[in-house]
């Protein structure tokens, strides 16, 4: 399955066609080639990083490379990364990146090291770069530069409590417009839990809001201009903001993935629209294994267009140890490691892992795991990577989207006022391109 990411396929096709390793080259590969070197990985508390770093000692034993790790919350990690890259500092060698968010910006600034020659000439014989889905590779290509290697596939999905729905005599929502009515009934029937939770933190909110916008039939841009004040844009802003205002948790404007996961895992939310990537953290401890069901966000008038993205692992263009850094990238994204991480609930970006017998057995152990995989399949088939505006200043565009929704959520602006101010700021941003 491939993601219809609406990106150029020419470069990736050429890249995938040229990655075969000759027998001689494979025999020459040496995992100890950079023994004694030290590299630094800037990580965040994303489930992928949390799980891969459990095997840090194995990497160091295999390669003789010392891996130094700096870990932050995601927003703090981004601030640290921008500081280092802006300074052209060699303090960081490897970092996680979201091509759908900062790919254009970082590539235009020259901050990524091009990895395409490494994938062709400096790989172990079992790495199998061809095994990555081509759409995920394409998503990390900007101006013919391979900016990172795919680590996962993810998108927001709806987690909901089957037991609470049954107690309240409710079925799963069948269309997007059902959510306010269901949330109202949940609030009345089960007032001790939050009826509906999703992201409200300004820079993080577009990840979940984008799914609402696309499902009502909206888009961020039309004819080169910001489109938030379209009928569809206003509908999406009103629906999302009012769900959180009327049925969300206190302090919803401060919620990102960490708060959502804690709230739902602890049994304090009936519905939580959050990342598929948080599945292992949500299920940690086992309390939600039996009472949770999963599904994509219900379709709206515009159909079903789930937000679908993937993290990638990148090497800084200012690294003083780029070759050693690549050894960590290929180890962390290898078929063996991604098969291990799949059993921890990290959705694999390699098609072969999804067909692995061990992975299939793991899925079959719990119905909720099967539902998770089914939802991922829908993300892969129907997804869009448009999260924010398709411009170099995409990260800044997300701030304006989040500000518009939060203004309605907090009651400081009407929908019309919020979208008009956002369109004004976003059109100015677009004109600077």
From TrEMBL:
Leader sequence segment: 1-26
Keywords: Cell membrane, Lipoprotein, Membrane, Palmitate, Periplasm, Signal
Major site of localization recorded for this protein: periplasm
Pfam families (alphabetical): SBP_bac_1
GO cellular component: periplasmic space
Location of the protein in the cell: Periplasm
SUPFAM superfamilies, alphabetized: Periplasmic binding protein-like II (SSF53850)
Family of the protein in this entry: Belongs to the bacterial solute-binding protein 1 family.
Full protein name: Extracellular solute-binding protein
Organism: Nitratireductor indicus C115
């Amino acid at each position: 399955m491939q993601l219809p990411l609406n990106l150029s396929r020419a470069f990736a096709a050429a890249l995938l066609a040229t990655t075969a390793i000759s027998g001689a080259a494979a025999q020459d590969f040496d995992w100890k080639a950079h023994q004694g070197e030290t590299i630094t990985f800037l990580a965040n508390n994303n489930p992928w990083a949390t799980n891969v770093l459990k095997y840090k000692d194995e990497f160091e034993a295999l390669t003789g490379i010392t891996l130094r790790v700096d870990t932050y919350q995601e927003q703090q990690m981004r601030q640290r990364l921008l500081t280092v890259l802006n300074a052209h500092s060699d303090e960081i060698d490897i970092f996680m990146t979201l091509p759908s968010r900062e790919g254009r910006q970082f590539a235009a600034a020259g901050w990524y090291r091009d990895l395409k020659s490494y994938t062709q000439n400096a790989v172990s014989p079992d790495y199998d770069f061809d095994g990555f889905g081509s759409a995920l590779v394409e998503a990390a290509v900007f101006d013919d530069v391979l900016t990172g290697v795919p680590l996962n596939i993810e998108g927001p999905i709806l987690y909901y409590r089957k037991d609470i729905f049954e107690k309240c005599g409710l079925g799963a929502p069948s269309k997007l417009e059902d959510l306010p009515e269901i949330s109202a009934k949940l609030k009345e029937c089960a007032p001790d839990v939050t009826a509906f939770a999703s992201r409200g933190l300004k820079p993080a909110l577009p990840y979940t809001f984008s799914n609402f916008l696309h499902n009502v039939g909206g888009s961020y841009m039309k004819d080169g201009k910001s489109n938030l004040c379209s009928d569809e844009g206003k509908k999406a802003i009103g629906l999302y903001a009012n769900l959180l205002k009327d049925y969300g948790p206190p302090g919803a404007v401060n919620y990102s993935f960490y708060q959502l996961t804690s709230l739902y895992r602890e049994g304090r939310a009936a519905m939580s629209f959050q990342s598929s990537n948080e599945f292992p953290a949500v299920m940690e401890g086992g309390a939600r294994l039996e009472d949770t069901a999963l599904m994509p966000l219900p379709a709206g008038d515009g159909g079903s267009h789930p937000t679908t993205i993937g993290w990638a692992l990148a090497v800084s263009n200012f690294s003083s140890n780029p070759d050693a850094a690549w050894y960590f990238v290929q180890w962390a994204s290898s078929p063996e490691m991604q098969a291990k991480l799949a059993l921890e609930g990290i959705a694999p970006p390699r098609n072969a892992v999804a067909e692995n017998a061990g992975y299939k057995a793991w899925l079959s152990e719990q119905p909720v795991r099967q539902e998770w995989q089914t939802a991922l399949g829908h993300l892969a088939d129907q997804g869009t990577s448009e999260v924010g505006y398709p411009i170099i200043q995409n990260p800044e565009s997300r701030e304006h989207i989040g500000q518009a929704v939060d203004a309605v959520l907090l009651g400081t602006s009407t929908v019309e006022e919020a979208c008009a101010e956002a369109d004004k700021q976003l059109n100015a941003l677009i004109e600077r391109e």
